[in-house]
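Subject: sequence -> structure tokens, single chain

Hey, anyone have a minute? Need the predicted structure for the following. Not urgent.
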Amino acid sequence: MRITAQSLRRFVFVTSDAHGLYEQFGFRPIQNPGKYMEMVTPVARLYEID
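Reply:
Had a minute. Here:
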């Protein structure tokens, strides 16, 4: 199965100031934010920067 944007059930991203803009395209606030977790990899580690 090939995964495409159309086959995704949920697409989540973060914005600090463009909520109104993305609402025009159908995005809504997360229904259950307490269920979400994240794992962040520092940029330096991604690109092996000292």
